[in-house]
Specification:
Oligomer: single chain
Distance between the termini: 38 Å
Number of strands: 2
Structural class: mainly alpha
Strand content: under 5%
Order of helices and strands: EHEHHH
Radius of gyration: 16 Å
Shape: flat
Largest sheet: 2 strands, antiparallel
Length: 113
C-alpha cells in the first residue's frame, strides 16, 4: 500500500470477459491480422476492486497488506486504440461494478452445479 497512487496500492486494468469475447468475434469476422491490446485504458487500484467486492458481496474482509513483490509495476494498463480503429471495438461491459457482479453471480451459479 505504499505505491505513489491515489490510495496506495498498485493500479491494474480489469476487462469483462464479454468484452474480450466480443473483440475476438470481431477479429474473426473480418480476419483481422496482427496483435491487439484489449483493455479499458482505465487503471483501477486493487483497493477500489476490494471495495467494489465488499459492496456486491455485502461483507467486509479482514484487509492486510503485504510487501511489494520484486519488480512489481506501479501501474499497468493498455491502449486499445488499434482495436477500436481496426475492429471497431470498445469495452462496453467493463465498468468495475459489472465485472465484480457478473463474476460473483457466476461463482454462485457454479456452486449449484
Amino acid at each position: 500500500n505504499d505505491y505513489n497512487t491515489h490510495d496506495g496500492p498498485c493500479l491494474r486494468e480489469y476487462v469483462h470477459v464479454l468484452d474480450i469475447v466480443d473483440a475476438h468475434k470481431k477479429a474473426i469476422e473480418i480476419c483481422a491480422p496482427g496483435i491487439f491490446n484489449l483493455g479499458t485504458s482505465n487503471p483501477i487500484s486493487n483497493l477500489e476492486v476490494l471495495h467494489e467486492i465488499e459492496k456486491v458481496v455485502k461483507k467486509t474482509p479482514n484487509l492486510q497488506f503485504s510487501n511489494r513483490r520484486p519488480g512489481d509495476a506501479e501501474s499497468l494498463y493498455s491502449d486499445y486504440s488499434k482495436a477500436k480503429l481496426i475492429l471497431n471495438w470498445v469495452p462496453l461491459n467493463s465498468e468495475l461494478h459489472n465485472i465484480v457482479l457478473d463474476y460473483y453471480n457466476w461463482l454462485k451459479l457454479d456452486k449449484h452445479r
